[in-house]
Write a structure and sequence with these properties.
With 229 residues, the protein is an all-alpha fold. The protein has seven helices and two strands. The chain is globular. It is found in: Cell membrane.
Amino acid sequence: MGAAVGEGSGSAAVDAQGDAKPARGGKIAAAAVNQASVWNIANLLTMLRLLLVPAFVALMLADGGYDPAWRSLAWAAFAIAMITDLFDGHLARTYNLVTDFGKIADPIADKAIMGAALICLSALGDLPWWVTGVILGRELGITLLRFLVIRYGVIPASRGGKLKTLTQGVAVGMYVLALTGWLATLRWWVMAAAVVLTVVTGLDYVKQAIVLRRRGIAERKAALEEKEA
């Protein structure tokens, strides 16, 4: 902060006429600063979610996977992962902490914890495999679809998609807990709602992708015809 000019502060050097010139290595220093910004609070929360995945699986399957105490601890890990998912993206956008790492790691962390929970539940016989297949198939399919149409634009997250994510989290969390009685019945209905929202929002994203692709092709064609004219 208080370093003199020309002492390697990376800001600028002054020539004989007193004009400021970029200091040697200034670009390298700037790049280093940008690289260091990867270690921000939003990315740290994303890393925490990634670390919680193996911890969740270990807790979920401990002692055969049916001990209520271990299942409660697994639920706590799952809940923390879901809560941090709500905050890291908001923090990144609000405080300009968006990084390439975050763009890649955030969706991976989301799908990793949800996928781990669904697979564990199905492996333990608590949840039908077709439910796990529908949810994971939809999530992976839409992610692939986003990459396929990225050249034409970005498919924005819809309110239905956000509601789907919330409903999935609540439903899976209820299944992770060793619930009995009317709560066990309630969780079945919540999961049913999550599956319906998963399918409906998935079809909506497919529709958006088709419209986006057609619009992009039409705009490129129009631009090409205008250039040739």
